[in-house]
Write a structure and sequence with these properties.
Structural class: mainly alpha
Order of helices and strands: HEEHHHHEHHHHHHHHHHHHEEHE
Number of strands: 6
Strand order of the largest sheet: 1-3-2
Oligomer: single chain
Largest sheet: 3 strands, mixed
Distance between the termini: 119 Å
């Protein structure tokens, strides 16, 4: 009886052994297969990834060697230099600025009740910083000192201080207008916008473009307030229209900045293994495993099944795909909102259907920024069209019955709504001394897409 039981136990242990050992052997074989395919794929893709790194470094070095962003010439004499040399000095000059001073400037620009004498003192205290900005605006180019060679790890400039400088310029313009110095106000508003343009062009990053667009808004928001109240004389209106027309046609390309972001990816991925646990949406236990280099290697290669388990191939494909999208944005970013939506919808569909985990992880959602850029262009053109309409009123003592009557000459682009690609919607109110220019986009964002022009001071009761 004991012999039979022992033989039965041996058979069972043998079967259990097969059940346990065979899957382990299969897993080892699969692991070796995956590892081998991944290793071979990585070796095959490695030369292209290295080539991409060289192309990226060449791209940024070319940008530097050309002096960075070559600025459009506005008014007055220009100097052959880098605007950032002066902007960096201005940033340093406002370091002592207190939160209380910043809050006072913020309230002033929002139209809240503030101590005007305090605002004057703040602006006087930082007049040197504003003069540095004005001097920077006269330089022929702008290049921010970003260490592109570090990829997405490159430290970024002090964007908050750059925004503060723009607010100071806009506040100086608002105070000047309140004191009846219209021409100084015009220069300050336009300088604030030009400062934003320099940051956008001289930065070459996605976030830099966003910050530059925000800076632009501070100046042209104050300008809108004065256009609504008919506060500019004829010469200032001419200058506003000329400069805004130049803004509209020369604002830096978002597609180019997104392309710069794609070139930072092959530089960065060398160190991506160290950062992978922070990128992966996983529980704490899995995250701890990801800190193990061996496990991490296997995990990333398993996730790269769509590129034959090659992480390098996944990176190459993701970067190539992202660059195609950036070039697509560059081609249509100055057209209209509907075309941008179509492009982004196609891109979203492509990403959702993609099995490339690097593509899903590393590619940001760009539609919000492309739309914001188009909204900035809408603001630029809307104020330019308003300046032309008011100029018409000063010369003819009435608003035009339609915008076709406005003599835009080479500034005809100002009369086109960037959201639709068509002419602005326009109406003159019953009394004939006020008018409205707007875009159908005002149904979504009326504060952005509409400007109502009041009567000149002598016509007001």
């Amino acid at each position: 009886m004991k012999l039979i039981w022992e033989e039965s136990l041996k058979k069972r242990l043998k079967i259990y052994g097969y059940i346990i050992v065979i899957p382990i052997i299969l897993l080892i074989l699969v692991g070796l297969l995956v590892g081998s395919m991944g290793l071979i794929g990585d070796l095959i893709a490695k030369p292209r990834l290295n080539e991409m790194r060289k192309e990226a470094l060449t791209y940024f070095e070319d940008f530097r060697s050309q002096g960075g962003y070559q600025k459009p010439v506005y008014n007055g004499k220009v100097e052959d230099g880098n605007a950032w040399d002066f902007y960096a000095r201005a940033v340093k000059a406002i370091e002592p600025m207190t939160d209380s001073e910043r809050n006072s400037i913020e309230k002033f620009l929002r139209g809240k009740e503030v101590d005007i004498e305090q605002i004057s003192l703040i602006l006087f205290r930082y007049e040197g910083a504003l003069n540095d900005v004005r001097r920077g605006l006269k330089q022929t180019r702008c290049l921010l000192p970003i260490e592109y060679e570090k990829g997405i790890e490159a430290p970024l400039p002090d964007y908050m201080s750059l925004r503060t400088l723009t607010k100071l310029l806009a506040s100086h313009g608002r105070l000047s207008q309140n004191m009846g110095r219209s021409h100084q106000a015009t220069r300050d508003y336009l300088d604030a916008a030009r400062f934003g343009q320099d940051i956008t062009g001289g930065d070459r990053t996605f976030i830099g473009h966003m910050i530059g667009t925000v800076c632009l808004s501070f100046g042209i928001t104050e300008m809108k307030k004065d256009l609504k109240t008919f506060s500019f004389p004829e010469e200032d209106l001419k200058e506003i229209a000329r400069d805004l027309n130049l803004f509209s046609s020369t604002w830096p390309s978002l597609g180019e900045d997104i392309l710069s972001e794609t070139w930072m990816m092959p530089i960065t991925d060398i160190k991506m293994e160290e950062k992978m646990p922070n990128f992966v949406d996983a529980g704490s236990i899995t995250r701890q495993f990801l800190h193990n280099r061996f496990f991490l290697w296997g995990f990333t290669h398993l996730r790269s099944w769509s590129t034959f388990f090659s992480v390098n191939r996944a990176w190459v494909d993701a970067i190539t795909s992202y660059q195609e999208h950036a070039k697509g944005i560059a081609k249509i970013e100055d057209q209209n909102l509907q075309k941008l939506k179509q492009l982004e919808e196609q891109w979203d569909e492509r990403i959702s259907e993609s099995h490339n985990w690097v593509e899903k992880m590393a590619v940001p959602y760009s539609f919000s920024m492309t739309k914001r850029r188009l909204e900035a262009k809408l603001k630029i053109r809307l104020r330019g069209a308003a300046a032309l309409a008011q100029l018409y009123h000063l010369q003819n003592h009435s608003y035009p019955s339609n915008l076709i009557e406005v003599d835009a000459r080479e500034m005809g682009e100002l009369l086109k709504d960037p959201m639709t690609g068509q002419s602005w919607k326009y109406k003159v109110f019953a009394n004939g001394d006020s008018a409205q220019i707007y875009s159908p986009y005002n149904e979504e964002k009326p504060n952005i897409a509409t400007i109502t022009l009041g009567p000149p001071p002598e016509n007001r009761s």
